[in-house]
Amino acid sequence: MSSIDSSSLESGKHDSLPLVNSGSLENFIKYMGILASSSESQFASAVLGEISQQREQNHLQDEELKKLRSEILDIKETKRTTIEDMFVANENEKAKQRDFSTQIESLRATVDEKESKISEFSKNLRTLQQKITKLESDLSQGVAKVSQSANDISTLQANLKEKDKMVDQMKAAGSKLKSMLSSEQEKNKELAAANASMNTELQAAKANMQRLEGFPIQSSDVDENFVVTEFRSLWTSATSELSPLLDLDVPKDTLKEKPIWEKLRKTDNILLPPSFPLIPSNSSAAKAVRFALILAVLFREIDRRIFKASYFLSESNSLREALGHLAENDGEKEAFCRRILLSIDPRAEHVAQKAEIRAVVQRMSSYTDGLFPEAQHDLFCTKIKSIVQNAAEFWLPIQRSQQKFETDFEEPFDPDDNEWDRFPFAGENTTPVAQDHGPYLLIVFPCISWVEDGDHNPLTKIIQLRSSQELYLAAQHEATQITTSATTRRHSARPRRQSTARSNGKPFLGGNSTNG
Fold it and tell me: Where is region (Disordered) located (predicted)?
């Protein structure tokens, strides 16, 4: 009975011992030691201290239980009466153990709570450290900015000192300028008075200038294209007007009138060579040469009487030459003088122009008198008048132009410079060619030039009759045959019928080739 009670007692004693893992408790204590620096860790240390004391008490209790078991075994018999007391004590110890377990669980919950707080504290600590780092960086940048601001302030202070010096200098200059301004204002008043006087004089001068500008005749607006086109048109209209008439045959009786042919050869201002083939014949070559000579005489008369600066003044060339020299040196002055001349008496100028046109017609009528029958002669004079009137109409705007234009019959400096055209025989090429080195015999139509800065700038080409042209050579050959035939008749023992070689040349300007 006592044996059973002892073993049950011992088993009861073992069941009442607390189950504590000492290794995990040590680790837990080490972990808690890490947190010793905080108030929570101090609290945990106190709890751990209590746990250690409890463990020591538990250890002591275990030693005491062992001692009691030993004593119980030894005094089973003697102390049965105390079993119940011991059982009660054991129950009390178990109650204590249960209280200790409850306290331990409470301490564990407290530790877990403290660990959570410690984790949150660590997180807050890291956040604070990051903020501190950022604040330190901002502080460094602020220090750099403050340093730069200090440098800028020093620079600005130096600049302010320089500005102050400049302000002082400007104040001194301002005082000087005020003094100068006062002086200039006085001068300005004097100049204003002088300017008012000059304005009055200027208005008077402008009035005089306007009055003087009204004296010359109004200038015409002509350009080079107009001059070239109209001048060429003058040549074209003259040849087209006269060619049908001069292509008609000369009456046979007229061919025998030597005075007529001698008068044609003896022209003013034209020196013909003795060999010039002006022959009394109706061949195409003879008509062509005759036509070229008549045109040359006509256009020289037009140049002399129509192409001049003024009509009612002296007929001498001194005025024309003087204006020509003036144009070479001062074109504006020449144009002004020319327009002044035209404004002296416009009505007299017009009357004189008509007289000059009649003089050209009378000169050409006298020059060709006897060459045509009366009806053809009247038609010739009518056509000449039309040509001369066209020339006068062409020249009228040129007289009044601001530019100076002059016609020119002078021979080219270099016959091979391609500044001339050959007289246009019908069917013959009129373009100058490189191999045409024959001398010219007659300038039929002049060129027109623009006079500027002492130079004559030709705008058109001179038209020449040249000794190398086909119909001229044919006329020269015919003239030689006529001369030979006349010599033979004079030396022949018996009279013979006059023989004239026919020209096999092409008709001039479309006319028929007929011998007289």
Answer: 482-516
Closest by Cα among 213, 388, 396 to 310: 396
| DSSP letter (8 states) at residue 405 | E
Quote the CA–CA distance of 254 and 372 in Å, as a whole number.
8
How many other C-beta atoms lie within 10 A of the C-beta of residue 107?
Answer: 16
- Residue 366 burial (CB < 10 Å; 0-12/13-18/19+)? exposed
* Residues 173-207: tens digit of each pLDDT: 888 898 889 888 888 888 988 888 888 778 777 66
Q: What is the largest CA-CA distance in the chain?
A: 225
Residue 272: how many other CB atoms lie within 10 Å: 16
359, amino acid identity: A
Interval 116-158: pLDDT, tens? 888 888 888 888 888 888 888 888 888 888 888 888 898 988 8
Two tokens, residue 493: 């023992």
Tokens coding 10: 């011992």
The whole-angstrom separation of Cα 244 and Cα 247 is: 5
Residue with tokens 């040509």: 387
Q: Chain-centre distance of CA 296, in angstroms?
A: 52
CA distance 243 to 81: 188
pTM for this model (two decimals):
0.54
Checking 367-371 for CB contacts under 8 A at 24+ apart, the result is: 367/263, 367/264, 367/267, 367/294, 367/297, 368/264, 368/294, 369/260, 369/263, 370/254, 370/257, 370/259, 370/260, 370/263, 371/250, 371/254, 371/260, 371/264
What residue ranges do the domains of the chain occupy?
Answer: 2-158, 224-510
276, 265 Cβ separation under 8 angstroms = yes
Q: Which residues pair with 462 in a beta bridge?
A: 420
As a residue count, the chain comes to: 516
